[in-house]
Amino acid sequence: MSIIIPKGSIIASFIYEKSNNLKGYEKMNELTISEVNRNEGHLGNELFSNDEKYIFISYWKDFDSIQKWKNNELHIEAKKMGNTWYKSYKLQISELQNNYNLDKY
Q1: Which CATH code fits 10-95?
Q2: Domain residue limits, the chain
Q3: Alpha-carbon distance 93 to 6, whole Å?
Q4: Along the 105 residues of the chain, how does pLDDT read in single tens digits?
Q5: Of 12, 16, 21, 66, whose CA is between 20 and 30 Å from 6?
Q6: Contact 44, 59 (CB under 8 A)
Q7: What confidence score (pLDDT) does residue 33 get?
Q8: In this structure, are residues 100 and 4 in contact, taking their beta carbons and an 8 Å threshold?
Q9: Inter-residue contact 96 to 7 (CB < 8 Å)
Q10: 60, burial (CB in 10 Å: exposed 0-12, middle 13-18, buried 19+)
C-alpha cells in the first residue's frame, strides 16, 4: 500500500548498513518507531532492504516537524549509538516536488 504524501512535504531518507554489534538495537528501534509515529508532523514512513543495505524513508509535514524530531530526547539517545550499530549511514533531507503513484494491490 502506498503512502500518499502531499507536494511540499519533507522527506528524510536514512540509508544505512548495520554493523555486527547490534546490542540494544531492536529495542531502541521499536521505541523510536513508536515515538516518531506520535509526532504531530510525521506523515508516515517506509522501510526497504536487500538484507545488506536499508533505506528508511520518513515523511514530514514541514521542516519544523522534522526539526522537532531531530531534537527529541529519545531520538538523540538513539543517535549516540550510530557508530556502534551502523557500518555506514547517510541522511538526506529533501522537499517533495511531485508524487506519482501506481498501486496495483
Answers
A1: 3.30.70.100
A2: 10-95
A3: 16
A4: 467 899 999 999 999 999 999 999 999 999 999 999 999 999 999 999 998 999 999 999 999 999 999 999 999 999 999 999 999 999 999 999 998 877 776
A5: 16
A6: yes
A7: 95
A8: no
A9: yes
A10: buried
